[in-house]
Amino acid sequence: MSTMTRWMDSPIGGLRIHVSAGLITAIDFGAGEPRRQQTGSTLLDQAERQLDEYFAGERTDFDLPLANDGTEFQKKVWAELRRIPYGETASYGDIARRLGYEPVISRAVGAANGANPIPIVVPCHRVIGADGSLTGYAGGVDRKKTLLDLERPGLF
Length: 156
Prior knowledge:
Elements: E1 4-8, E2 15-20, E3 23-29, H1 42-55, H2 72-81, E4 90-91, H3 92-98, H4 106-114, E5 127-128, H5 141-151
Parallel strand pairs: 4-5
Antiparallel strand pairs: 1-2, 2-3
Helix pairs in contact: 3-4
């Protein structure tokens, strides 16, 4: 089955949603890219609607079928990211501890977090530095701050 994509506008810039074999496979930050609409996919419609609801403050969790392509460690980290409640944050060390590892593995958690292909839906933006700082984000720290402010105004 071929991959279908859809561009959508959002408060953090253009997003490109990828779908293949009935699963969301990726969401890319596409700032500056033209808006292109691909029709014919109920899943793309559903993903765009849920993302719009999230950005409007009407949705706190996503109900979408997600691809889970990664190493076993990455899959564990991504599953743990989905357990961070809306409006809350966790440090890389917190995630390591929740997975049964020592906090020294936090760099590996950070690498898995950075490799997350489905940001926002798998909320890697909710992971912060041990000192509470906004650390790197694939979409840029400004986008991370915007997402966290959307979920909990005044947190950062």
